């Protein structure tokens, strides 16, 4: 059960990584939902699964050209995201965290937007577009997966540096590979299948961040008992400005523009917005995160060298 004294602020991951619209809107709603779920004994994973149904329903409703149906879809998507906020807040309030919960939470948004992209492609064909509309539809879908994956990864890296392992959900493919290899298809088919997808997902995140992997490697090697306060302070100062880009390429910005395109009955623009507006932001985010990671990696190496030489 949740601690009745658990405050709204304690249900958040970190003010560094929270977007303003989330703090003003989604997190307060999610907090109330989380309090209710804790009271009735509903755990985080079922809340996530319910959010998937609402998100997929929203996508289906975006297929229709009637604006009033689209508005119902918009409300359904907003509620799905409120539930998605609630599951994490509930997990923190009740300390009911699990690897499966993290995987489900990350996959929920992908299910929503798969449904949305399929619906918008079919809708565009109904409006006279050729089958070629599926090309930008699929490219935008792939872009969305990468954007969300990297934004989520960078948020957890930031939380790892400012809060340590207790405040972060940062995973490594090396650890996940060991867990995956320990399972058997005959005894753990479902979990092994999920673990395979999550392992591939984590490897993709790591492949886009080679400098960051070097930094995490040297940090985990030399700071077993916790990060030095100076490193935490310096990393937070340099990395915090990049958190706004993780917010831009995730839910709120894309959905606000999606709703705009639906209101003016030009839903096809959403694909090109994803490809030609959000992808450059993703690239900028990755490049600058790599610069920050390289700077701190070299700083730690230099410090080690000076200590070895007795400087």
UniProtKB/TrEMBL annotation:
For this protein, the record's InterPro entries field holds: CDP-OH_P_trans, CDP-OH_PTrfase_TM_dom
Q: Where are the transmembrane segments?
A: 49-79, 100-120, 132-154, 269-287
Please indicate if the UniProt record lists Transmembrane helix as a keyword.
yes
Keywords assigned by UniProt? Membrane, Transmembrane, Transmembrane helix
Q: Which residues form a coiled coil?
A: none
What Gene3D superfamilies does this protein map onto? 1.20.120.1760
| Entry protein name | Phosphatidylglycerophosphate synthase
Classification of source organism: Bacteria, Pseudomonadati, Bacteroidota, Cytophagia, Cytophagales
